[in-house]
């Protein structure tokens, strides 16, 4: 019997960011299921609960994830002076703006579902949101996180982990 792999901790902030990407992908999968569910079942309790779960995730954990990157990871990577990192960070920040705009288009529709004021999601808005995240996550997992592991010092990573914990109201015990 294989034991489950323990969840990453704030001691390994890059693994936590990668795990968050997995949770974002799961929420995007929920959006796709919700989109398929609505035409057949309307805005039933299951649809309302799914919409609420997606809203809750992207309003809290999803926001924290972007802050982790924009306030902690990206500035430390930029400070390394690495040209590849700088170009990548410019691209990723632009993608963050695109994803934030996509969320602002999708969020009111999800809110309407949670309140049973609507029974549909705009397919184009939903797919644009999902596609933006899928592409962004692929780049971060394949390029950003390995580059960060290569360029950042243990002290940088420890500071990022502490700030990630604080952002979530977690106090770390001294090592």
Notes on the structure:
The structure is a single chain. By secondary structure, the chain is mainly alpha-helical. It has 6 helices and no strands. The protein has a single domain (13-167), classed as nmb1532 protein domain like (Four Helix Bundle (Hemerythrin (Met), subunit A)), CATH 1.20.120.520. The protein is globular. The mean pLDDT is 94.
What name does the CATH topology carry? Four Helix Bundle (Hemerythrin (Met), subunit A)
The CATH class is identified as: Mainly Alpha
Question: What name goes with the CATH superfamily?
Answer: nmb1532 protein domain like
Name of the CATH architecture: Up-down Bundle
Beta strand %: under 5%
Report how far the terminal alpha carbons are from each other: 32 Å
What is the makeup of the main sheet?
A: none
Task: Name the descriptors.
globular, Four Helix Bundle (Hemerythrin (Met), subunit A), 0% strand, mainly alpha, 6 helices, 175 residues
List the helices and strands and how they pair.
Blueprint: H1 13-41, H2 45-59, H3 61-78, H4 83-114, H5 123-151, H6 154-167
Helix pairs in contact: 1-2, 1-5, 2-4, 3-4, 3-6, 4-5
Summarize this entry quickly.
With 175 residues, the chain is mainly α. Helices cover 78% and strands 0% of the residues.
């Amino acid at each position: 019997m294989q034991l489950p792999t323990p969840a990453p901790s704030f001691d390994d902030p890059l693994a936590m960011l990668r795990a968050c990407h997995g949770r974002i992908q799961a929420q995007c999968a929920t959006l796709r299921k919700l989109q398929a569910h609505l035409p057949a079942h309307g805005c039933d309790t299951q649809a309302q609960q799914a919409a609420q779960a997606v809203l809750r995730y992207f309003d809290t954990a999803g926001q924290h994830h972007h802050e982790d990157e924009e306030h902690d990871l990206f500035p430390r990577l930029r400070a390394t002076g690495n040209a590849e990192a700088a170009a990548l960070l410019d691209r990723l920040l632009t993608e963050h703006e695109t994803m934030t705009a996509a969320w602002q288009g999708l969020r009111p529709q999800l809110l309407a579902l949670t309140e049973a004021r609507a029974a549909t999601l705009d397919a184009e808005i939903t797919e644009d949101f999902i596609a933006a995240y899928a592409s962004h996550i692929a780049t971060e997992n394949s390029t950003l996180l390995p580059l960060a592991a290569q360029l950042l010092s243990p002290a940088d990573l420890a500071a990022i982990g502490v700030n990630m914990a604080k952002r979530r109201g977690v106090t770390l015990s001294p090592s």
